[in-house]
């Protein structure tokens, strides 16, 4: 994917983390001052600026992946394995590069799951890293399929399927 200068943005954060409030203010101030034509849009933003840790980045990717949004993860969590930028001292420079169209997109796979019982879908979900289906009450028979093709039959308490991103 080629880099483009975004026209719309959204700041997605974990409001339980107090540092995100301060960073949201700093980022909005920077955008208002230096990028006045950039429009806030929480429905279909060109770029999603994620303030938080890996869990917040995973949540944002689940919400915005179908909209084609570029996600910039600014680590305000603990590990920041999925973050685009891990050090706070680099946040504003990375943001300016993004807003000026100077960035590369690393595309990641999203995994989708459906749980069926008696040919009826009882649960659906999507994830950036992995999906787990388990039965805490005992043994079950599960069949994993990729694009409708069976790849694994399991008799056990559950199954974990991971993308290349893997577990955080």
Give the SSE map.
Layout (H helix, E strand, L loop, with lengths): L7 E6 L4 H17 L4 E2 L6 E6 L1 H11 L5 E6 L15 H9 L11 E7 L2 E8 L2 E5 L5 E7 L2 E8 L1 E5 L6
Parallel strand pairs: 1-2, 1-3, 3-4
Antiparallel strand pairs: 5-6, 7-10, 8-9
Structure description:
The model has no long low-confidence stretch (mean pLDDT about 90). A hairpin with a 2-residue loop joins strand 8 and strand 9. This protein has three helices and ten strands. With about 170 residues, it is α/β, with parallel strands linked by helices. The radius of gyration is 19 Å and the shape is elongated. The strands form four sheets. Strands 2-1-3-4 form a four-stranded parallel sheet, sandwiched between helices. A two-stranded antiparallel ribbon has the order 5-6.
């Amino acid at each position: 994917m080629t880099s483009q200068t975004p026209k719309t943005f959204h700041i997605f954060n974990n409001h339980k983390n107090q540092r995100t409030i301060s960073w949201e203010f700093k980022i909005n101030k920077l955008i208002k001052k230096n990028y006045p034509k950039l429009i806030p849009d929480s429905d279909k933003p060109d770029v999603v600026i994620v303030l938080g840790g890996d869990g917040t980045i995973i949540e944002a990717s689940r919400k915005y992946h179908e909209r084609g949004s570029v996600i910039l993860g600014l680590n305000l969590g603990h590990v920041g394995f999925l973050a685009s930028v891990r050090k706070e001292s680099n946040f504003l420079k990375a943001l300016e590069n993004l807003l000026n169209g100077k960035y590369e997109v690393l595309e990641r796979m999203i995994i989708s799951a459906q749980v069926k019982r008696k040919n009826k879908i009882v649960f659906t979900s999507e994830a950036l890293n992995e999906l787990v289906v388990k039965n805490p009450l005992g043994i079950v028979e599960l069949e994993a399929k990729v694009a409708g093709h069976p790849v694994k039959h399991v008799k056990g308490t559950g199954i974990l399927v991971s993308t290349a991103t893997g577990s955080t």
